[in-house]
Give the backbone structure.
Amino acid sequence: MVNRVLYVRLPCNPIFPIGVVYLADHLHKVFPDIEQRIFDLGTVPPLDFGSALDRCIDQFQPNLLVFSWRDIQIYAPVGGRGGNPLQNAFEFNYARNPLIKMRGAMGGLRMITTYVNELWQNTGLIKRGLKRAKRYCSDVKLVVGGGAVSVFYEQVASWMPKGTIVSVGEGEVLLEKLIRQESIASERCYVVGETEPRDRMIHEWPTTVEKSACDYSYIENIWPEFDYYLQENDFYIGVQTKRGCPHNCCYCVYTVVEGKQVRINPADEVVKEMRQLYERGIRNFWFTDAQFIPARRFIDDAVELLQKIVDSGMEDIHWAAYIRADNLTPELCDLMVKTGMNYFEIGITSGSQELIRKMRMGYNLRTVLQNCRDLKAAGFNDLVSVNYSFNVIDERPETIRQTLAYHRALEAIFGRDKVEPAIFFIGLQPHTHLETYAIENNILKEDYNPLAIYLPWVANKLLWNPEPLGSFFGEVCLQAFRQNPNDFGRTVMDILEDRLGLAPLEEALTAPVKSAQSPKKAELLVL
């Protein structure tokens, strides 16, 4: 019988482990008599990982061991754990100076070493934890899940001990069934060495779970390291207001991991959860939703939540989130400012309406621009990060000029110093439309290994920057790294404008649509 559950959060950057916290809270509400413990290796010095894990298992003696693995792939637009992946890759691939090319190669080698070491380290910790737990319970169950495992679930089987339950996406119902000793055959999971993952299993919809406010008094009791995240005032503590994303963006895995059905957490419960953290001194909150306002039909839910935050009297808080700015209204803008939003991210990817359509993002850029004006009029004077992923599908000099014009329009609204362009070159992920596109166009082989980034011929394809513009962007980014690495995004935009100029803004806001009657002609659909 399962009655002692230990959650081990594998080492990663110091980000509040909202996933394991919510899992433990949920199981406590369903099974109040079971014992649980959270052990966060993100708060432990690297040299102590193994010994600290041993001590925790010796003390707690679990019969269900749950490992949460957040990060596997190391692509990032800026400094990663082993260095700057973008800079290393671009110096190696595009630098003309052989010394710079060599520096990129050495930096890439260090990153690959870090990457391989982390894979060995984390798989070693999982095996070590299982072996240690078997000293006290010979039939201990092992579950491995988390963001990284959910994306690369097909690849991790070869690393895991036989009998490991590999969990995809949300794990509440899976853990409930394990505790009840019920069949888990219908859950999004498989057992290493016993069953195979179903075809397209990640695309199956997760089971809806009713969410109530996390009980942080209980979490404090089972998580000795909880205070680590309360020590510094600049930590943003995660709070989830909904799960799921209804969109179909070509490069994103949120839709398949969390499901397309958006499930709203009751506003009263969200505020109750925030209040518990507030009373513990927390003033900065990050709404961990895939998108805070994923579609217009959820505007009323956002209004209700923000109004209840206003009514709660928590006046000195700040919050941040990913936001689809095409779904803002003047009322929402006013409430965002009143409730202390001091940072948000817009993942528009491109400032060209044509490319927005081709990437299946569903944005209306004209609406985004007007809503940003409304937000500024409501009094928003803080930072907005705008994510641009150049050279994704059908990028051309014209569409680059359109993106530049759109970015300058955002700067005109908020101020240049308040708009931070985050320049991404997408790390291609499994289970996305972009992966399908790459396979259909012979960029990737169907049997490629998405984790084989230690092989240069694989890594260069997964860090998406194809020709004919790949070398051009490589040269621009290298120039930006030389000129001002501390303000890389703005420098890239300035260099691109110097080289290509700006399109008229109206051109960025319109998208050509081929006529069904005459494929050779195109008409402009003005949005």
Remarks:
- The longest strand covers residues 341-349.
